[in-house]
Amino acid sequence: MQSWRRKALLLALSASWLLVLLGAFPLLRLAVPTRPRAGASQGWPRWLDAELLQSFSQPGELLEDAPELPQGPRGGSCDWGACFDASKCRGGGLKVFVYSAAGPVSETHRRILASIEGSRYHTSNAAEACLLLLPLTRDSSAGECSPVPPQWNGGRNHLVLSLHPAPCPRTFQLGQAIVAEASPTVDTFRHGFDVALPLLPEAHALRGGAPGQLRQHSPHPRVALLALAEERGGWHTAGTNFSACPWDGHCEQDHGPEQTHPGATLPNATFCLIPGHRPDASHFLQALQAGCIPVLLSPRWELPFSEVIDWTKAAIVTDKRLPLQVLAALQQMPLTRVLALRQQTQFLWDAYFSSVEKVIHTTLEIIQDRIFGASAHPSLLWNSPPGALLALSTFSTSPSDFPFYHVQQGSRPVGRFSALIWVGAPGKPPLKLIQAVAGSQHCAQILVLWSSEKPPPPRWPETAVPLTVSEGHRKVSDRFFPYNAISTDAILSLDAHSSLSTSEVDFAFVVWQSFPERMVGFLTWSHFWDEALGGWGYTAERANEFSMVLTSAAFYHRRLRAGGPGRSRSPQSATASIRWRQGSATCPWCPPASVWTQCSSRTRCPYYARSIAAWRSPRREQRRPQPYSRGRPICLGGAERGGSASSLRTGQSRRPVSQCGRSRLANHSPSAPRGRALAPPSGPAAGCSSPVRGARSAAVRCRR
Amino acid sequence: MCAAVKYSLRGPALIPRMKTRHRIYYVTLFSIVLLGLIATGVFQFWPHSIESSNDWSVEKRSIRDVPVVRLPADSPIPERGDLSCRMHTCFDVYRCGFNPKNKIKVYIYSLKKYVDDSGVPVSNTISREYNELLTAISDSDYYTDDINRACLFVPSIDVLNQNALRIKETAQALAQLSRWDRGTNHLLFNMLPGGPPDYNTALDVPRDRALLAGGGFSTWTYRQGYDVSIPVYSPLSAEVDLPERGPGPRQYFLLSSQTALHPEYREELDALQARHGPSVLVLEKCTNLSEGVPAVRKRCHRHQVFDYPQVLQEATFCMVLRGARLGQAVLSDVLRAGCVPVVIADSYILPFSEVLDWKRASVVVPEEKMSDVYSILQSIPQRQIEEMQRQKWGSVSNPLFLPLIPPQSQGFTAIVLTYDRVESLFRVITEVSKVPSLAKLLVVWNNQNKNPPEDSLWPKIRVPLKVVRTAENKLSNRFFPYDEIETEAVLAIDDDIIMLTSDELQFGYEVWREFPDRLVGYPGRLHLWDHEMNKWKYESEWTNEVSMVLTGAAFYHKYFNYLYTYKMPGDIKSWVDAHMNCEDIAMNFLVANVTGKAVIKVTPRKKFKCPECTAIDGLSLDQTHMVERSECINKFASVFGTMPLKVVEHRADPVLYKDDFPEKLKSFPNIGSL
Predict the structure, then answer these.
(1) What integer pLDDT is reported at residue A22 of this predicted model?
(2) Which residues of B touch A317 (CB under 8 A)?
(3) R_g of chain B computed on alpha carbons
(4) Half-sphere exposure at residue A18, Cβ-oriented, CA atoms within 13 angstroms
């Protein structure tokens, strides 16, 4: 009985406790206000009489600005409108005159001169120049700098260029001259007027330049996260699990995988910490070249070409006062951002920094953009491949006119092409070819370029599309002249003796639309390193690889016609012999050829070298995994044979290598008959034949 | 300005409750100022993601009740603005470090009414615009009411219009703020700087190190990487509702609507009109308006009266000339009207120029070239004008945009997804191991109920073989970014794909190296629009086109594994796991969506042992399977909001494929078809 009562009591007690506990919390929550600081201000008040508030300006005030004359420059500072006389540049665009050195020509001076002389800006007449360039160089013989130049005029329209820091003391006031110097301090830099240059090492290549070190998009899993620039040069790499110890450049603790590479100049890490002092700016370029994302700790110097280059896409500028936050942020940075930053470093290096020539041309291009004003490069053209030096603003400033930006713009090249038929010596009108091309549903117009001795026939066949005949100057490169008559992006370049069917033309055009930045053609060549001659040779023989397509039957983008001097050379004609000298100073800029090599979309030439011996060797040998060697010896076959390898290495050290195309495109027609091989006039047929298209897919569909 | 800013917003809008257009304007303004500061560097790391703001019922008070503060005549005045200020010299980052979410916190001083010694107010207490601006900040996630946690301080002293200020006294009011400390981390907003006669281009109030978000900066006064240039707010265009105008030609080519212009400019404009006739319209202030018509809303040309700002919509280009001040409110009107601004104001720092590329939406002409402005504008191609009219700032970018060719020596990692078909799996492993470029083989063992075979039973191959056991039988496991993947190239292969030869796989890898941002695969598929059903349809029949490749055998970049696992939009991933199907379609969508490029199909069609291929064998058509796959396409297209897949009509074959050439000299002789 008692035990029963005790049990009941216990039960009742615990039940009531449970009730209290359950009930009390909501009650408690009700009793205590939800906001911890109930009495404190809760944001900006909602004023009861907010409707009565006056506007910050009276209605008329914004309009009735008292008319006032424009202000002139104040103090010693300059800006573009005030200190540069752009009226001199009308007409001819930017023409640059370079002062010659008074005494013996220094090496730097010679390099500056060499890179400008080959450019489209150069003029040897000071009177017609709109920009006068005064190189400040460290003269080995004389202690003092160049004297005040004759046309100085207070420095107006002068560009004072000092590639390397700390040249001799200046003997004159810079005044209104634009100063282009390496890593200028932010305090004296005049935005929009001066130009910030990178801090170049003395031995920087004049032309071509070493390619970037980035070989793959994502960082290798085993590579270090951080490298720290050291004062005495070189880099100090550290693993992923370290504290802020490398911050001040010295690290006493031992953290396992850390190591210092005094000899290695290029860092091998994902991020490169660069202190903000000015001398450390030289590390910046190394990081760029290595594809190591520069993390700048409160830089006191202006980033190179900051006027046009969006450095937030390639580098991280941060505060050295926040070591822990920076480290944490780097460790947690999303892969997407890391990928984008890494690629951008490489693109910028290759486009603007890898050679002295590029640095100087970029400087001039920036100044030209200021002169052009409205028709300058938009930021997109500066900051995405292939860069503003290759996407010429004289051609267009609209990204959709170029073949490179369709993905970013979400656009497609316009769905028509113009056929350009070049009639050479025999002078027979290519009637069959015209009919075949005119039959294509994508053809917009046909231009016949009559380059023969014979006069063109008076009558031409009736075609569905407009046909224009124009007489050329009997020069092979006529066909690449950017004719105004061409209205479409795509150009089908043809020789009179080519023979194509309408289906082949249609198919090739569809392929070109997928790869508008490449050349798409039928006949292929491959080039190889001819050891006997010590030069490049080409062959039309059938091989497993090819590097060029012949312009006797190929599609390419209109923009490739407008290539400026010193950049892309016009592709040679079918009959020209292409031969490049070993070690020639100029990288013979890639003929914008080749379907499957990555030619035209990059700034460097994808030379694929393969000796005939290698070509003849059994295929197992060919396919042995070869070390990737962009920027190292080209001649894979030759280099393997020892003897000449070293000389090749040195001679060709600037030549990027790429593999050749090994694939070709075919239609998806199920049981497509093999297409006819083209019958070129010379050499064996070696084409990608394009099969006759099958019937279009029967199902109705809407392509978006 | 709104029109332009609308597109430039990188983060989502700050406030869920948007009542008026003013409000949107200020919210945008403030977030862009913050973005500008972020762009300048110091805050690069702070995530600017927004959480839903707490819905606090804010105390309502009257402005007349604010406390009055008397400023003694001899109270301190801050130094003039320090022109050498940069983020790392004048800004105290330590204040911005210690809050749990690493977010910039902004504090607003409470409103006070300042009077001088004799009781005369220093300025109007607060203007409507500044009140709305502060409300926007307060409603945003950046706001804090704890002064000790704040990184930025916004005084409630209204300095938007310098004309309405008593400069010395305003400076004294600033200096006595509780955390002033030489203005460090204080942010001032100003739209009308300077005053007669010299019209300085920055606020004349001595402000020491305070950051200034100002309208009308010139290159002389703008502290690059420290100040932020903002547009001058125009109350007019916020009042008037303007309909959207699409791009295209308009009635006038060039229009000038400003009324107060320097006589020299007026002469130039008149000369322009005389030369080019009716395509140029130069408007002036109306002189003979009837009573009650607001003069600010009308413009006149000779005797013709136009509504302002509506008339701006009738022009392709609209002039924005400098007045006494560089920043002109007309810029906001012009942008809102969808007219392309022609800015003629030398040394003017355009609003938000650190984050916006003005070249894409405006034309900047030097003052000395004003007489040529017509021919300069005429030389702009129509297509570019339309792009400017659209004022598109944002763009999509391919994550693997650099055309890098990965080294061949690196090889690829093959990932075989398997459940329990051990015999077939071993055959696949043996076949794949013959491919020269194979670097590693990863078997994803998706069967939790059964252990993988013992080590000794696995085929002996020349590359490392690793078995990963999964926690759940999910299809997504095949696309997980395993740490074991050290190569960039990944070959996804099913455990029953035994018909691919070593040559075919090696060739596929070579093609992938050429196009590392694409999916390179063997069996191709197509999506079609079914007009009868009004939806997408999945097609596996013989077609002339492909838009997908099956991931039963496909090469791709390992980055897409990361994207698939962590960044797949919507509920696609869980849908795939729930339906145990369509993981390959999802991958095709994902890759096409981020790169904007089509897949690449390699080698001719082969007989594949995959469920839907049975149709080709003439056995039985698995109708339900096809319906399910079609449903997947429709589902994914709705989640992506678009159809990202691209159709192509070509495939890649080796150069000498089927050529009349000795087989033993071909690189890839063993490539067969059906």
Answers:
(1) 58
(2) 41, 44
(3) 33
(4) 6
Contact assignment for B404 to A214 by CB distance below 8 Å:
yes
Cβ A655 vs Cβ A634: under 8 Å: yes
Report the SS3 class of residue A359. Answer: helix
Q: What CA–CA distances, in Å, run from A61 to A52, B261, B531?
A: 19, 13, 60
- Residues B630-644 pLDDT 10s: 999 999 999 988 889
Contacts of A515 (CB under 8 A, 6+ apart): A595
Rounded to two decimals, the ipTM of the complex is 0.72
How far apart CA B363 and CA B341 sit, in angstroms, is: 6
Rounded Cα gap, residues B435 and B411, in angstroms: 10
Average pLDDT, chain A: 68
Cα separation, A613 vs A594, in Å, equals 22
Helix (H) or strand (E) holding B137: helix B128-139
Q: pLDDT digits over A77-101, tens only?
A: 677 877 888 887 877 678 898 887 7
CA atoms of A54 and B125, how far apart (whole Å): 10
Asked if A407 and B643 come within 8 Å (Cβ–Cβ), the reply is no
Is-contact A330 A295, C-beta < 8 A?
yes
Kindly state the DSSP code that residue B310 receives in the 8-state scheme: G
| A455 vs B529, higher pLDDT | B529
Dihedral of alpha carbons A21, A25, A30, A32, sign? positive
Structure tokens, A566: 């010193």
Which tens digits make up the pLDDT trace of A254-269? Answer: 444 444 444 457 888 8
Interface touch B260/A65, C-beta < 8 Å: yes
Q: Running DSSP on this structure, what letter comes out for residue A349?
A: I
* Chain centre to alpha carbon of residue B578: 32
The partner residues of B348 in beta bridges, in order of sequence, read B218
What is residue B589's predicted lDDT score, i.e. its pLDDT? 94
Nearest by CB to residue B667, choosing from A321, A544, A669, is A544
Cα separation, B85 vs B210, whole angstroms: 9
pLDDT in tens, B514-560: 889 999 999 889 999 999 989 999 988 888 889 999 998 999 999 99
Cβ distance of A67 and B261 shorter than 8 Å: yes
**Distance, first Cα to last Cα, chain B:** 62
Closest among B347, B343, B224 to A306, alpha carbons compared: B224
Residues 528-557 of B with CB under 8 A from A: 528-531, 537, 539, 542-546, 557
Fill in the amino acid letter for B558: K
Q: Which strands form B187-190's sheet, in the order they lie side by side?
A: B187-190, B211-214, B228-229
List Cβ neighbours of B335 (8 Å cut-off, separation of 6 or more): B1, B2, B3, B4, B341, B361, B391
Higher pLDDT, B237 or A456: A456
Length of chain B: 674
B302-329 pLDDT, tens digit each: 888 888 888 888 999 999 988 888 888 8
Strands (E), B64-147: 68-70, 106-108, 113-115
Question: What's residue A569's pLDDT?
Answer: 29
Instruction: Render B474-504 in DSSP notation, one character per residue.
Output: -GGGGG---TT--SSEEEEEETT-----HHH
CA pair distance A132, A148, nearest whole angstrom: 13
Average pLDDT in the B490-505 region?
90
- Residues with Cβ < 8 Å from B513, sequence gap 6 or more? A659, B405, B406, B408, B489
Instruction: Find chain B residues with C-beta within 8 A of A326's C-beta.
Output: 45
Q: Where are the beta strands (DSSP E) in B394-474?
A: 412-418, 438-445, 465-469
Structure tokens at B156: 């409630």
As given in the structure block, the two tokens for residue A661 are 């195309």
With tokens 């017609």, the residue in question is A128
> How many angstroms separate the Cα of B553 from the Cα of each of B493, B511, B521, B549?
4, 14, 6, 8
Task: Specify whether the CB–CB gap between A185 and A301 falls below 8 A.
Answer: yes
B219 near A CB under 8 A: yes
